[in-house]
Amino acid sequence: MPPFFRAPRPVRALELSLLVIPLLMTLACQGSGPEDALEQQSPRLVLEPGQLVVSLTFDDARASQVNAASLLEARGLRGTFFVSSGRLGIPGYLTLDQIRRFQAAGHEVGGHTVSHVQLPTLDVDSQRRQVCDDRVALMNAGLRVTSKAAHARGSMQPTRAGRTPAHPHERLHAR
Q: Can you list the domains of the chain with their CATH numbers?
């Protein structure tokens, strides 16, 4: 049986995605004028003809993401790993040293709240602490933290105060 079929299901899915994504992007991005769909969807992103940017993101800092990082690196690709600082080192999750190795290999690290809570269920002060304290903890650990963030459980809906709190340097990662 080929090695692809012997790999654990998440690894197979990632490997398949890495094979299919270039094909899909080639098909989706055919065209070379200003009416190109990619340019219309990303007006702030200026690409030269033939250039393409694809973001591969991983949330929750699960220990199995070591496999994802290795698969990406073997193909010359890098990803963004969104980390809940309060979970680092807990069994089943990545350690700070593993996250540092990811970053040293060229992967990006972003915040994912301290304890992976749904922000809309919290009062505004607690929401701000979850977001900002997570970023500060990651930075204090010596990590370069991207200005993008993926709030836990996709909780990008407005909070009780009508907006999602964000660190001043943070952009929400659309999912």
A: 1-54 (no CATH), 55-175 (3.20.20.370)
**Residues 151 and 131: beta-carbon distance below 8 Å:** yes
Residue 160, pLDDT above cutoff 60: no
Decide if pLDDT at 20 tops 70: no
Task: Using the structure block, give the residue that is written with the tokens 């969104």.
Answer: 82
Q: How many CB atoms lie within 10 A of CB 4?
A: 11
Nearest to 58 by CA among 47, 66, 49: 66
Strand partners, 162: none
Q: Is the pLDDT of residue 164 over 60?
A: no
DSSP codes, 69-98 = HHHHHHTT---EEEE-GGGTTSTTB--HHH
Q: Can you tell me the distance from the alpha carbon of 150 to that of 175, in angstroms, rounded to the nearest whole number?
A: 8
User: pLDDT tens digits for 23-67?
Assistant: 444 444 444 333 433 333 333 456 788 777 778 889 989 999 999
